[in-house]
Design goal:
about 60% helix; Mechanosensitive ion channel family protein; SH3 type barrels; 5-stranded antiparallel sheet; transmembrane helix; Alpha-Beta Plaits; 3-stranded antiparallel sheet; alpha+beta; YbiO_bact; 8 strands; cell membrane; MscS_beta-dom_sf; elongated; about 350 residues
């Protein structure tokens, strides 16, 4: 036993031992560490340049000059650039973080396998067991893998971000958190929805680029459509020129014309292009101004499904009471009954 210990110590003391396996293991560990550091630095620098470039575009953006060049086809891209630049910068940073994590995991795995090989471990059974375990885990965790892959592509494609108002199917509201596995959406009534990314089949985003407030305004059927359209457009322009709304409305409002015809009304459609998430507030303000403008011109929103019944009430009263009450004119009673029925019909 002592001889074995002495021979082992003597072998450890020789330079040949340290220049063999320990040196190779040290070089593998050092190489894996340096490769990981270099790759992480490259990924960080590339994604950082993308983010810094988008931020620089945002700083150089001049909305006044962009609006003056509104006839240029590139105007719409320029108009969208302040919002898009911020989102692209955030997306590049997120993707960079994910890539750095994946790089570290892959290099660490390869380094450990190479070190075990140098230490004369038989990796065949280990790899076979890992393969079998991987298949079993893959079948059991396929939904988890699907969630992570879907989350990665959603972030890479910038389908939505924190603060966006989205419709994910059964869940809709404001995005509060975006993860690689779960997205949290706060509904209007305060409900917080936790939606697995793998279950999201479609995304409706109301916050990207710009929005549009669309109002369908019913006016009496016998109204002058051209005159009413001018009144609606004038009211919309006054709304846009208001100091509080000037920065929210991106373009001149447009009256698209008659949208629908019914027996009671003519429906005129108005469209206003706004900043994201401002379409609902602008629509509410526009309805209030339109109500006042139409009332000033003597135009009222027509009552729908109004029903007038004539002649049935007096005859029924006469049949039950044997005639008209004393001192009451039959014609007056019929007119009163018609008025009452008309009022009931209008309420319904």
């Amino acid at each position: 036993m002592d001889r074995v210990d002495i021979s082992t110590l003597e072998r450890l003391a020789t330079p040949a031992f340290w220049l063999d396996t320990p040196l190779r293991v040290s070089l593998i560990l050092l190489g894996g560490f340096l490769a990981n550091m270099v790759l992480r630095m490259v990924i960080k620098r590339v994604t950082g340049k993308i983010a810094d470039g988008e931020t620089a575009k945002l700083d150089k953006f001049d909305p006044v000059a962009a609006r003056k060049n509104s006839k240029d086809p590139r105007y719409w891209l320029m108009q969208d650039s302040p919002i898009a630049a911020v989102r692209r910068a955030q997306r590049s940073k997120t993707i960079g973080s994910v890539l750095r994590s994946i790089t570290t995991i892959v290099l660490a795995t390869l380094t450990i396998l190479m070190v075990l090989t140098e230490l004369n471990f038989n990796l065949g059974p280990l790899l076979a067991s890992a393969g079998i375990a991987g298949v079993a885990i893959g079948f059991g965790a396929q939904t988890l893998v699907k969630d992570y892959l879907s989350g990665l592509f959603m972030v890479a494609e910038d389908q939505y971000g924190i603060g966006d108002v989205v419709d994910l199917g059964e869940a809709s509201g404001t995005v509060e958190s975006v993860g690689l596995r779960v997205t949290q959406v706060r509904a209007v009534d305060g409900t917080l929805w936790h939606v697995r990314n793998g279950e999201i089949l479609r995304v409706g985003n109301s916050s990207q680029g710009w929005a549009r407030a669309v109002l369908d305004i019913p006016v009496p059927y016998d109204s002058d459509v051209e005159k009413v359209s001018e009144l609606i457009l004038k009211t919309a322009m006054e709304l846009r020129m208001d100091e509080d709304n000037r920065r929210l409305i991106l373009d001149d409002p447009e009256v698209w014309g008659v949208e629908a015809l019914t027996g009671e009304s003519v429906v005129i459609r108005l469209a206003i292009r706004t900043k994201p998430l401002e379409q609902w507030a602008i629509a509410r303000k526009m309805r209030a101004r339109l109500k006042a403008a139409l009332a000033e011109e003597g135009l009222r929103i027509p009552l729908l499904n109004q029903t007038v019944i004539r002649g049935s009430a007096p005859s029924a009263a006469a049949a039950q009471g044997g005639g008209t009450p004393q001192g009451e004119d039959p014609a007056q009673g019929e007119d009163a009954a018609v008025a009452d029925q008309a009022e009931v019909g209008s309420k319904h």
